[in-house]
Write a structure and sequence with these properties.
By secondary structure, the protein is mainly alpha-helical. The chain has four helices and two strands, in the order αβααβα.
């Protein structure tokens, strides 16, 4: 079951979210070049692409956290 984002989360949910955020922080690089060149688009922020490329901007990080936490 996924993480409930409606405020009814448990301690286990919080620990799982913490693990997801730590994993992403350790394994996904911030794409500074895309940020400053303006080359990021919605497709580049899709969770599957972020996992495949190993980099993204803020939107990609957020989308991946949500996808992983709610899976």
């Amino acid at each position: 079951a996924g993480l409930d984002l409606d405020g009814s989360s448990t301690r286990a949910d919080a620990l799982r979210l913490r693990a997801v955020v730590r994993w992403i922080g350790a394994n996904i690089a911030y794409d500074v070049d895309a940020l400053f060149s303006g080359s990021q688009d919605a497709a580049s922020c899709e969770p599957s692409r972020v996992l495949r490329t190993g980099k993204s901007v803020c939107s990609g990080y957020a989308n991946l956290v949500r996808a992983m936490a709610c899976a």
